[in-house]
């Protein structure tokens, strides 16, 4: 027996929870969230690795739809740690009584569109079936772990973990020889914490990375009181900046100032720390010569912090423009390499050959290990969607439609898949934006759209091939107006997963422009969509 609903939402992270609230409480729909995990939190439910913390500042890493909620919740530190984010998500779920419509421990294994009935049929691993008019994916962009297929891993006698599938009761590193593969945002957060606990940590670096100090600290009573008085302004700034963060990007350009002034500005930005470093000048992400100045500043900082010249050389040997890959921020990452128990192995100079029963073998040596940590990222953006085995009209599979890379309209809809909405899908600003900001916009747009359909007695919405072609071209054009595609090994391009098509996936035109485009689409009677009774 299938359960009949108006809408099925897949995933109970930031997007799924808010989508449930909107459909159930604002539109009065029968909606249910199917969630693979045992609790709310989405990506944060799984990412419990050492040092897991959000890089967005806490006062901007929350929903803004409820003034009451904003007034009630107080973050404790400048950047929220994973357990505190989980407390927040649970607080929201309880406050709005969401859990009664979230079915946990429920893995979706298939979702097929029945054109005759104009309904989606959703199946779970336990064999349950759900039938609904609307299907909304809220599966996150970075939720499908990428464990590289390294020969010999199955022979390893020690333990190994991926950061995105971290054991809920933690990992005890004490007295252990640990090897960590990966130096992205995750790896950079994990290194200093693991280094403090382990007997020895070897970091296997393939691509050196920039990082700026986070300068995390408890939030003061003074800040909390300022925030209380300025909350509306903070929200307004978040909604008016291209990346959804609560700071404005400077209007000055890198070459508007003298060398000495520029150095001083970078020093101040470094001293303030965090993602705001990118905002010190407006042209760092679009002008390579301007970017070189920021890159050079950070490389010099790395060489100043890291005392061993050989480690400093390896860690500062960065080959891509600053922030062309998602720029990490850290809490004593480079400093950790000054500890006697932390080494770095440069895989570009001694490629990783295999995992052996007792460690990792590179082209030059074998390093004995008790634990391997894979901080190797995700099959980003498309991975979580394709894992759902979505089939649209005539049984056409999403994975076939996207064989050469994701194609959709506004990051929201795919032709041939009526009434399916993908929250923060590829082709939307998503990962280039402070996530709660873009999630709220998507959820509200989808809610308004479904509300409009019900009001007008419409039962089907679907975009067209032509509209997808135009949107994909626009997404490419927006990416190529920046330096982002120049990091050829970035997950933005799918380059981190062997065999994945190289297509720049997120929309780089900025959240403000994107919001305007979505509003124009509505103002022009859902231009680019075909609506039917
Ligand atoms: O993953 P990554 P991540 N052999 O893909 C290396 C978000 N995030 O989990 O660069 C050896 O960035 C790979 O090397 P290379 C944030 O958006 C957010 O760190 O491909 N190495 C790279 O060093 C972030 O961007 C927060 O050469 C291999 C690393 O593994 C995104 O998540 C906190 C390899 C992977 O880096 C993903 O970050 C943390 C191999 N076979 C993360 N395969 C927040 O603040 C991969 N690597 C919200």
CATH architecture of the domain at 3-144 and 379-532: 3-Layer(bba) Sandwich
CATH-assigned homologous superfamily of the domain at 3-144 and 379-532? FAD/NAD(P)-binding domain
Structural class: alpha/beta
Largest sheet: 8 strands, mixed
CATH class of the domain at 3-144 and 379-532: Alpha Beta
Per the CATH scheme, the topology name of the domain at 3-144 and 379-532 is: FAD/NAD(P)-binding domain
Could you name the ranges where pLDDT drops below 50 across 5 or more consecutive residues? Answer: none
- Head-to-tail CA distance between termini: 27 Å
Count of alpha and pi helical runs: 15
Labels describing this entry:
533 residues, alpha/beta, 8-stranded mixed beta sheet, 15 helices, 32% helix, binds 3-acetylpyridine adenine dinucleotide
Quick take:
This protein has 533 residues and is of the alpha/beta class. Helices cover 32% and strands 17% of the residues.
Notes on the structure:
There is one protein chain. With 533 residues, the chain is an alpha/beta fold. The protein has a domain at 3-144 and 379-532: FAD/NAD(P)-binding domain. Helices cover 32% and strands 17% of the residues. The chain starts with a strand and ends with a strand. The model has no long low-confidence stretch (mean pLDDT 97). Residues 54-55, 142, 148, 181-187, 189, 206-207, 326, 347, 352, 375-378, 431, 489, 491, 496 line the site of 3-acetylpyridine adenine dinucleotide. Residues 54-55, 142, 148, 181-187, 189, 206-207, 326, 347, 352, 375-378, 431, 489, 491, 496 line the site of 3-acetylpyridine adenine dinucleotide (N01).
